[in-house]
Specification:
By secondary structure, the chain is mostly helical. 82% of the residues lie in helices and 0% in strands. Helix 3 (47-73) packs antiparallel against helix 6, helix 3 (47-73) runs antiparallel to helix 11 and helix 8 crosses helix 9. The protein is globular.
Length: 267
Amino acid sequence: MNRVARALALHELVERTRDRWVVVVSVLFAALASAVSAYGRSAGEGSAGATLTGPSLVTLASLFVPLVALVLSHDAIVGERERNTLGLLLSLPITRMETVFAKLVGRGAALVLSVSVGLGAAMAFTSAGERATLAALLGPTLLLGLAFLAIGLLISSVASRQAVAASMVVVVWFSMVFFYDLGLLGILVVSDGTVSQDLIANLVLGNPAGLYRVTMMEAFVGPEALTDLGLVAELPSRAMRGVIWAMWIIGPPLVSGLILLRKKVVR
């Protein structure tokens, strides 16, 4: 990234931290995570508390963080186009691909700050023995957020208006976070076992929300996470999971940059 791209990334970070939406979401996530953590601590100390707190925070993060990331990034490109500032931005010594990745870095830094504040507040309400367990949530949760942030950037590149982009992120959130797993479960039921469980497991892990849930289930339950759900399949290696995360985080911005190269800057 050249100097202009770095300045754009910093500008995106500063603007997002000033955004009331980001502040409200950060406070809300911190409050909910703290409440879950405090409840888990009151229910039991040590491993018993972590058994309650960890999975509860995973459920909260798997619903909350993707929505925050999508809303945070949905106007990154289409918003500039509607304000007629995209042409001015691209008149600077910065390529269109650098523009997309600068926005990903800047808004990603704001997302990292928001998630870190939320999980940090949750750790403040736990005992010392549980903090290490909850700290293990931070890395995968940030990867989850960055993956959906990248998806939001792609939506912002293809949408014609901000209102359309806002509608699309809601549909994507419901589809990938709620209905995706239900659809795969329906396929298993309807097929009566004729569909390979390895295929279903791979489809679950191909979705960043599913990959996050299974990864954290493995961390809290053990390598038998899928077996406990009735799926006879092996979890992918750490290296393969890293490849999947990298594809979700880097792939959509690359496509966004290519789309921006082909689209007219000014309507």
